[in-house]
Amino acid sequence: MALLPILHYPDPRLHTVAKPVAQVNDDIRQLVKDMAETMYDAPGIGLAATQVNVHQQVIVIDLSDERDQLQVFINPEIIWSSEEKKVWQEGCLSVPDFYDEVLRPSEVKVRALNLEGKQFELHADGLMAVCIQHEMDHLKGKVFVEYLSSLKRMRIASKLKKKSKAGVI
Ligand code: NI
């Protein structure tokens, strides 16, 4: 097990588009273990492989209070999304200490592979729907702040750059 370093916005590597996993093998299972450890340590409720500079379509999510309900999505696809949309206050481990509102479909149906390489479908609503869409954006190279105005984005980027230089993050 290993903690993986998390990339911080505006790191250009966050804009890499992840490739589908060709085979769910022990390397992928190890990656999932390391990503889960990294997410729990952060602590966060979701993490996409892109955020740890691995550009394969792998997501881990755990919304439980006890932190014992890990959900793994390999090669996830959204096969249905509701017309109804909802605004949620989102945060991201790659954009520390920043939260803002994003409008997204309130429900989605996702198809993905599990750790055994078996396909499953999940109908998600509430926070799970938000989290899946947020993490899937990471796999496409998109960070949630890109939904915000360019002025806001520039402020966030320059604030985070200053922080990294000072060695805070
Ligand atoms: Ni994120």
SSE ordering: HEEEEEEEHH
Bound molecules: nickel (II) ion
Quaternary structure annotation: single chain
The number of helical runs is: 3
User: How much is the average pLDDT?
Assistant: 94
Question: How much helix, percentage-wise, in residues?
Answer: 25-40%
Termini Cα gap: 22 Å
Radius of gyration: 15 Å
**Strand-residue fraction?**
25-35%
By DSSP, the count of extended strands is: 7
Bulk shape: globular
Low-confidence stretches: none
Strand order within the widest beta sheet: 1-2-3-6-7
Class from secondary-structure proportions? alpha+beta
Sheet with the most strands? 5 strands, antiparallel
Structure description:
The protein has helices at residues 26-41, 126-139, 150-165; strands at 46-48, 58-61, 71-81, 85-92, 95-105, 107-113, 119-125. It has 169 residues and is α+β, with helices and mostly antiparallel strands. Strands 1-2-3-6-7 form a five-stranded antiparallel β-sheet. Strands 4-5 form a two-stranded antiparallel sheet. The longest helix is centred in the first third of the chain and has 16 residues, at 26-41. Nickel (II) ion binds next to helix 2.
Q: What is the fold's blueprint, element by element?
A:
Elements: H1 26-41, E1 46-48, E2 58-61, E3 71-81, E4 85-92, E5 95-105, E6 107-113, E7 119-125, H2 126-139, H3 150-165
Antiparallel strand pairs: 1-2, 2-3, 3-6, 4-5, 6-7
The structure holds nickel (II) ion (NI).
Quick structural overview:
The protein is of the alpha+beta class. It contains 3 helices and 7 strands, in the order αβββββββαα. Bound molecules: nickel (II) ion.
